[in-house]
Amino acid sequence: MRDAIPSARGRALLLLLLPLLAACSTTLLNQRIERRGGGWTIALLKLTDGPNDYGWGVMRYVPGDDERFLWARIELRNDSSAPQKFNYDRCDLDLGDSRVLPGLIDRDFILNGPAPDVEEFEPGEAVTRMLIFSYPEDQLPTRFSCGDVTMPLPRF
Questions:
Q1: In 23-148, where does DSSP find H-type helix?
Q2: Through-space distance between the first and last CA atoms of the chain, rounded to whole angstroms
Q3: Is 41 domain-assigned?
Protein backbone atom coordinates (compact mmCIF):
# COMPACT_ATOMS: atom_id res chain seq x y z
CA MET A 1 0.00 0.00 0.00
CA ARG A 2 1.38 3.43 -0.98
CA ASP A 3 1.59 6.35 1.38
CA ALA A 4 -0.65 9.35 0.71
CA ILE A 5 2.35 11.62 1.39
CA PRO A 6 4.02 12.60 -1.91
CA SER A 7 7.66 11.76 -2.43
CA ALA A 8 10.34 14.46 -2.53
CA ARG A 9 10.36 14.19 -6.33
CA GLY A 10 6.57 14.53 -6.41
CA ARG A 11 6.68 17.63 -4.19
CA ALA A 12 9.38 19.17 -6.38
CA LEU A 13 7.28 18.54 -9.50
CA LEU A 14 4.24 20.09 -7.82
CA LEU A 15 6.26 23.19 -6.92
CA LEU A 16 7.41 23.51 -10.53
CA LEU A 17 3.85 23.19 -11.84
CA LEU A 18 2.23 25.67 -9.42
CA PRO A 19 3.30 28.79 -11.35
CA LEU A 20 1.90 27.27 -14.54
CA LEU A 21 -1.40 26.47 -12.87
CA ALA A 22 -1.60 29.98 -11.41
CA ALA A 23 -1.08 31.48 -14.88
CA CYS A 24 -4.25 29.97 -16.34
CA SER A 25 -6.30 32.04 -18.72
CA THR A 26 -9.32 31.65 -20.98
CA THR A 27 -9.10 32.84 -24.57
CA LEU A 28 -12.08 35.03 -25.41
CA LEU A 29 -10.94 36.09 -28.89
CA ASN A 30 -8.16 34.67 -31.04
CA GLN A 31 -8.57 36.32 -34.43
CA ARG A 32 -7.16 39.45 -35.99
CA ILE A 33 -9.54 42.42 -36.05
CA GLU A 34 -7.86 45.31 -37.84
CA ARG A 35 -8.87 48.95 -38.30
CA ARG A 36 -7.15 52.07 -39.65
CA GLY A 37 -7.55 55.64 -38.49
CA GLY A 38 -5.64 58.75 -37.48
CA GLY A 39 -2.47 57.63 -39.25
CA TRP A 40 -2.37 54.25 -37.48
CA THR A 41 -3.23 50.64 -38.20
CA ILE A 42 -4.41 48.96 -35.00
CA ALA A 43 -5.13 45.25 -34.80
CA LEU A 44 -6.61 43.39 -31.86
CA LEU A 45 -4.93 39.97 -32.07
CA LYS A 46 -6.12 38.22 -28.93
CA LEU A 47 -8.23 38.87 -25.84
CA THR A 48 -7.89 36.62 -22.78
CA ASP A 49 -9.53 36.46 -19.38
CA GLY A 50 -6.49 36.07 -17.11
CA PRO A 51 -4.00 35.31 -15.85
CA ASN A 52 -4.83 37.39 -12.81
CA ASP A 53 -1.34 38.49 -11.93
CA TYR A 54 1.53 40.31 -13.58
CA GLY A 55 5.05 40.08 -12.28
CA TRP A 56 8.04 42.15 -13.25
CA GLY A 57 11.26 42.06 -11.28
CA VAL A 58 10.29 42.06 -7.62
CA MET A 59 6.91 43.71 -8.36
CA ARG A 60 3.68 41.74 -8.58
CA TYR A 61 0.35 43.22 -9.65
CA VAL A 62 -3.07 41.64 -9.06
CA PRO A 63 -6.58 42.90 -9.81
CA GLY A 64 -8.74 44.46 -7.08
CA ASP A 65 -11.49 42.64 -5.24
CA ASP A 66 -14.26 41.33 -7.56
CA GLU A 67 -12.09 42.09 -10.62
CA ARG A 68 -9.90 40.11 -12.97
CA PHE A 69 -7.35 40.97 -15.65
CA LEU A 70 -8.41 41.03 -19.29
CA TRP A 71 -5.34 40.95 -21.56
CA ALA A 72 -5.57 42.49 -25.05
CA ARG A 73 -2.69 41.74 -27.41
CA ILE A 74 -2.55 44.46 -30.06
CA GLU A 75 -0.40 45.32 -33.04
CA LEU A 76 0.18 49.00 -33.69
CA ARG A 77 1.73 50.48 -36.87
CA ASN A 78 2.52 54.10 -37.72
CA ASP A 79 1.06 54.61 -41.22
CA SER A 80 2.08 58.26 -41.53
CA SER A 81 5.20 59.60 -43.26
CA ALA A 82 6.46 61.22 -40.05
CA PRO A 83 7.22 60.01 -36.51
CA GLN A 84 4.13 59.91 -34.27
CA LYS A 85 3.55 59.49 -30.57
CA PHE A 86 0.92 57.04 -29.37
CA ASN A 87 -0.71 57.29 -25.94
CA TYR A 88 -2.11 53.98 -24.65
CA ASP A 89 -4.60 55.89 -22.51
CA ARG A 90 -6.46 56.29 -25.80
CA CYS A 91 -7.26 52.55 -25.65
CA ASP A 92 -10.18 51.21 -23.63
CA LEU A 93 -12.79 48.52 -23.14
CA ASP A 94 -16.39 49.51 -22.61
CA LEU A 95 -18.16 48.89 -19.31
CA GLY A 96 -21.77 49.87 -19.94
CA ASP A 97 -21.69 53.64 -20.49
CA SER A 98 -18.19 53.86 -18.98
CA ARG A 99 -14.79 52.89 -20.27
CA VAL A 100 -11.91 51.05 -18.65
CA LEU A 101 -8.35 52.13 -19.45
CA PRO A 102 -5.42 49.70 -19.36
CA GLY A 103 -3.73 49.62 -15.96
CA LEU A 104 -0.58 48.05 -17.37
CA ILE A 105 1.10 48.05 -20.78
CA ASP A 106 3.55 45.23 -21.46
CA ARG A 107 6.19 45.11 -24.23
CA ASP A 108 4.98 41.61 -25.23
CA PHE A 109 8.36 39.86 -25.05
CA ILE A 110 9.13 36.44 -23.56
CA LEU A 111 9.78 38.08 -20.18
CA ASN A 112 7.39 40.66 -18.77
CA GLY A 113 8.52 44.24 -19.17
CA PRO A 114 6.38 47.33 -18.88
CA ALA A 115 6.17 49.77 -21.77
CA PRO A 116 5.76 53.52 -21.26
CA ASP A 117 2.26 55.04 -21.44
CA VAL A 118 3.37 57.10 -24.46
CA GLU A 119 5.73 55.85 -27.18
CA GLU A 120 7.08 57.43 -30.36
CA PHE A 121 7.13 55.39 -33.57
CA GLU A 122 8.97 56.00 -36.82
CA PRO A 123 7.06 55.86 -40.13
CA GLY A 124 6.12 52.25 -40.91
CA GLU A 125 7.27 51.01 -37.48
CA ALA A 126 5.07 48.27 -36.02
CA VAL A 127 5.05 46.73 -32.54
CA THR A 128 2.92 44.39 -30.50
CA ARG A 129 1.88 45.28 -26.97
CA MET A 130 -0.15 43.63 -24.24
CA LEU A 131 -2.73 45.92 -22.64
CA ILE A 132 -3.88 44.67 -19.24
CA PHE A 133 -7.26 45.85 -17.98
CA SER A 134 -8.66 45.37 -14.47
CA TYR A 135 -12.29 44.48 -15.27
CA PRO A 136 -15.31 43.41 -13.13
CA GLU A 137 -15.57 39.62 -12.73
CA ASP A 138 -19.26 39.39 -13.67
CA GLN A 139 -19.12 41.42 -16.91
CA LEU A 140 -17.59 41.28 -20.38
CA PRO A 141 -16.82 44.11 -22.82
CA THR A 142 -18.72 44.54 -26.08
CA ARG A 143 -16.16 46.73 -27.83
CA PHE A 144 -12.47 47.67 -27.86
CA SER A 145 -11.39 51.18 -28.83
CA CYS A 146 -7.90 52.41 -29.49
CA GLY A 147 -7.00 55.77 -30.95
CA ASP A 148 -9.55 56.75 -33.57
CA VAL A 149 -10.86 53.23 -34.13
CA THR A 150 -13.52 51.11 -32.45
CA MET A 151 -13.87 47.37 -32.85
CA PRO A 152 -17.06 45.59 -31.84
CA LEU A 153 -16.36 42.35 -30.00
CA PRO A 154 -18.30 39.14 -30.54
CA ARG A 155 -20.56 37.88 -27.75
CA PHE A 156 -18.53 35.68 -25.42
A1: none
A2: 48
A3: yes
